[in-house]
Amino acid sequence: MTHPSTDLTDGIRIRGLTKTYAGGDPHRPALESIDLDVGRRRFVSLIGPSGCGKSTLLRVIAGLEEHDTGEVSLFGSTPRALCAAKAIGLVPQTPALLPWRNVRRNITLPRSVNRRAGTDGEDPDDLLRAVGLGDVAHRYPHQLSGGQQQRVAIARAFGMRPELLLMDEPFSALDEFTREALRLQLLVLWQRRATTVVFVTHSVREAVTLSDEVVVMSARPGRVHEVLPIDLPRPRDASVVTGPRMHALEDRVRASLQSAWEAGAAPDDLVPL
Ligand SMILES: Nc1ncnc2c1ncn2[C@@H]1O[C@H](COP(=O)(O)OP(=O)(O)OP(=O)(O)O)[C@@H](O)[C@H]1O
Ligand SMILES: [Mg+2]
Q1: What DSSP character marks residue 120?
Q2: Any coiled-coil ranges, and where (predicted)?
């Protein structure tokens, strides 16, 4: 099968995207007038207040959610087509493991439904070691902690060798040291595979450490508030991520989040106890 990405040159291009959930307030769409460009092979993070539409945007890009108006183009193709070709790896906000398959068979799931991944898929044991889980291949999801389940979902997405990797707060359930180690693994994968990554996080430090650009969103309705370029050199080793430029960029993202918060939240949304 010819992979649809073989002659694709563009990145992600979103124009005028609006999305209102059925039953939701039509005056406050989940996403409104989203314009966004993500260059091919770039690493871009989405950050913003809870409920600003980050997961919704990721699901629309993944071809799992319909939008109302606007255009979404992925490498010159459509989300549906890329999704059908198994060229998109998605790590959802809660790990979607199949309870009746053990860890190894959850990891090999995409290749069992996808011939391309079946021919060049990674060894599940190597993938598990890469996420720090060498000894759980025969366990079932209910026998794992929440963080371990999340790492299995990450390993599965890594193993798909996706053209586009969409990650929704993938490290949120993990302790700081595991999180740090997995960030490095992710950067290795991204650089080795030349994958395009869209990454959702609430951690300013994580967004700045990983990304080429940080997209700050505001809530109610969900909009792109600001796109901040992260001009730190790569590799992002210890000297880079502890340096003054790193701290200046973190401050910059924090200031943007603050103004996004002020721009988006209605005063009656949070009522003091
Ligand atoms: N299936 C749904 N039906 C109706 N409304 C929904 C649905 N999913 C999300 N929403 C609403 O859409 C808005 C955006 O939700 P979304 O999950 O995309 O936010 P988010 O930025 O990912 O938030 P968080 O940081 O808490 O994960 C919220 O107001 C949410 O309540
Ligand atoms: Mg979310």
Answers
A1: H
A2: none
